Amino acid sequence: MELNDVTQKIIGCAINVHRALGPGLLESTYEVCLVHELSKAGLNVRSQVALPVVYDGIRLEAGYRIDLLVEDSVIVELKAVESIHPIHEAQVISYLKLSGKKLGLLINFNVNLLKNGIKRLAN
């Protein structure tokens, strides 16, 4: 499946979750519901994937976790915040670099219209 197809399905599933729940809940709630929607859509999804840092040739566990990894190719970082800030985008870019993945989605569920809360980021 191409990355564009995967991201379209992820966004569609996120919209379904947002329509059903609306803004104002905890990020963890959106995460479990989105995992369910993605699985229903036939996508392979893993949540809270450990992301080590390789420093000085050594693989170190630094406590980083990818919210969702879909089809082992798209990183999905979920937020439920007032607004997306540059640090949130930097977080996704860092995760892309550390993991070697090419594409990430930053999704903020704390908006009235979900399309206004989605950012696509590439490595």
Share of residues in strands: 25-35%
- What is the overall pLDDT average? 97
Looking at the structure, what is the overall shape?
A: globular
Number of structural units classed as domains = 1
**Residue windows where pLDDT falls under 50 for at least 5 positions:** none
Protein described:
This protein is α+β, with helices and mostly antiparallel strands. It has a single domain (3-122), classed as 3-Layer(aba) Sandwich (Trna Endonuclease, Chain: A, domain 1), CATH 3.40.1350. Helices cover 38% and strands 33% of the residues. The chain is built from three helices and five strands, in the order H-H-E-E-E-H-E-E. It has a five-stranded mixed beta sheet with strand order 1-2-3-4-5, with helices on both faces. The mean pLDDT is 97.
Q: Can you give me a brief rundown of this structure?
A:
Helix content is 38%, strand content 33%.
Provide keyphrases for this structure.
single chain; about 120 residues; alpha+beta; Trna Endonuclease, Chain: A, domain 1; five-stranded mixed sheet; 3 helices; about 40% helix
Topology, please?
Blueprint lengths: L2 H19 L5 H14 L4 E11 L2 E13 L3 E6 L6 H14 L3 E6 L9 E5 L1
Parallel strand pairs: 3-4
Antiparallel strand pairs: 1-2, 2-3, 4-5
